[in-house]
Description:
16 helices; abc type-2 transporter like fold
Amino acid sequence: MNRLAHILRLGLKELTSLRHDSVLLLFLLYAFTVAIYLPAAGSVIGVHNASVALVDEDHSALSRQLAESLQPPEFQTPAALPYDQLDAVMDSGQYTFVINVPANFQSDLLAGRQPAVQVNVDATAMSQAFMGAGYIGRIFQRELLSYANQADAASKAPALLTTRALFNTNLQGGWFLAVIQIVNNITILAIVLTGTALLREREHGTLDHLLVLPLTALEIMLAKVWSNMLVVVVCTWISLEVIVKGVLGVPLAGSMGLFLMVTALYLFASTALGIFLATLARSTPQFGLLAIPVIIPMLLLSGGSTPLDSMPQWLQWVMQGSPSTHFVSLSAAILFRDAGVNVVWPDLLALAAIGLLFFAIALARFRKSLAS
Length: 372
């Protein structure tokens, strides 16, 4: 009971110290509000509101049908453009797509010939250009088959491909990005908060005061872990309820309680990593430089930014030793697919094992640093 009382009081001391640190408080506020909202609301992964111009040399019902098939929100209403201005608007970047329907296009199609529609693409708008050209090709193919009464022939093909998107039917990238931003910010804050808390005590001399008290390294470390864990879990819950669900309108289907429990388990591992890095550094700036090559791979290679399947096999095996890899998998499964413990228990078990290993290594290093 004495040890539990020590851990509780030391944790309260950490919370009091954080309350008086205005820089870290502002960073917490930014990380769970603005840093979540701006990337999720402002990023466009697919084609959205792409500018289109149409050079209609045919002036037929079919050319008008092709123009009307490009509709918001993917495309703006196509603007009519004279042929002699095609090169000028492409050079100026005024339109991402300029479509040229040649003369006699409808009559050639009805005569059984194979006329071509020219789609000029401004490839400097890389994401929209690559995906938008494919969208336009599929839309025009559908319209031309329908106009030429070949829709029935297409349905009799030996194989048909039907794509159905689950859990995010409109493929809105902001939904997934909002959760991944929270996951990334949890990783950064867990390491930074615990590491700077330990180094701040060393630089201010308060760590020496703790050493003359009847306290053990385990008690000091557990106090830092639970206090910072509490702060990040509460901030995560508020951010999910207010920013993600309230402001961004992301429908989270899974259990919030299960996700917060998984977050606490992940924080147990990542805060231990932060303490370990702090024992290697001699000052806060040195800790920052040391944390960069650790945090960046955890963020980029955990499966949130790049799918694990697209990485080399050996790198996939290496990243299984990172807690962030399992946390990203658990977050998507719980929040979007409403997965329960009976589904995600392998990742939960792996995360708990990695956390215990990190904690044991950090504790051994922390004891060694205190002894020296």
